[in-house]
Design brief:
The protein has 276 residues and is mostly beta strands. The chain is built from 1 helix and 22 strands. The two termini are 34 Å apart.
Length: 276
């Protein structure tokens, strides 16, 4: 994979979607059609009733620093999705090379237009809950991936201008329209997909959804995280056990693959993944 100015570039199948990772700033971008579709917000985890962020100075509420203590790469072959490059990041709330508490990984596939975002927890974590009321589902206790969305201002990011769609009643709002910056309530759960599409080029679209642990893996505009689109453990989870993991899938369309086709492909891949 190419590298320039401490930025590593990973391309998926036919370069339909690419990941740009900046090892200096700990930021990443998702590129398609030579445009920045998604620009990352900081990595965040909440446990022991405390927030930790890879960039506390960018947050709207006080957070302690989250330290990147190790970064490594590997290549492999998934029985369903095929060959991949994997970039893994290990995080600690103490600035030491030992005892990471969270691992986040990008898995970029060479035979599919897919990027997986994986979270792995090597130790038990407690004190993750942010409340027991239903409204707590709007929050997440981990954020990976996390994408910036404008808030009560002019459009700053391409994501503000994309059309979006999901199955009715999956989001607490009627989740159809333009611009995620106007969507604040509720979130996606139970593996429901969020489709984002270019309004002027309907075969240019991306699906985001949970791939594993559907009842805990949420997509929401978390109020505690600048209302960024955040994927991870929802805010009512009290604790997780050692070796717990969850995965979010990003599936990009190919040329002449419109909304119906990409939804059908997503369904097919999910069924294959679970041996149906």
């Amino acid at each position: 994979m190419p590298t320039m100015n401490n930025i590593q570039i990973f391309h998926s199948y036919k370069n339909s979607v690419s990941l740009y990772w900046n090892s200096d700033t700990h930021e990443y971008r998702i590129i398609r059609d030579n445009q920045i579709w998604f620009e990352s917000g900081p990595f965040v985890i909440h446990f022991n009733q405390t927030y930790y962020s890879s960039a506390p100075e960018q947050e709207i509420m006080p957070m302690l620093p989250l330290y990147l203590i190790e970064q490594y790469q590997k290549i492999g072959n998934d029985v369903i999705f095929g060959l991949f490059n994997k970039l893994s990041l290990r995080w600690s709330y103490i600035n030491t090379t030992n005892n990471f508490i969270w691992e986040t990984s990008f898995k970029i596939f060479q035979e599919q237009s897919i990027i997986l975002f994986e979270q792995y927890f090597p130790v038990d974590l407690n004190g993750m809950s942010q409340g027991n009321v239903r409204d707590t589902f709007k929050y997440v206790s981990t954020a990976f991936p996390r994408f910036k969305v404008s808030f009560n201002e002019t459009d700053q990011y391409l994501i503000d201008q994309l059309g979006h769609f999901t199955f009715l009643d999956a989001w607490d709002l009627n989740m159809r329209g333009i611009g995620l910056k106007n969507v604040f309530n509720g979130g996606l759960y139970s593996g429901n997909p969020l489709l984002l599409y270019n309004l002027t080029k309907l075969d240019s679209n991306i699906i985001l959804s949970s791939l594993t642990n559907f009842m805990t893996n949420f997509q929401t505009r978390s109020p505690s995280l600048n209302y960024h689109l955040s994927c991870g453990l929802h805010g009512r989870i009290h604790q997780i056990e050692q070796s717990f993991s969850l995965t979010t899938i990003l599936l990009a369309s190919q040329s002449k693959q419109g909304i119906n086709q990409i939804i059908n492909l997503w369904v097919k891949l999910m069924l294959q993944y679970y041996g149906k």
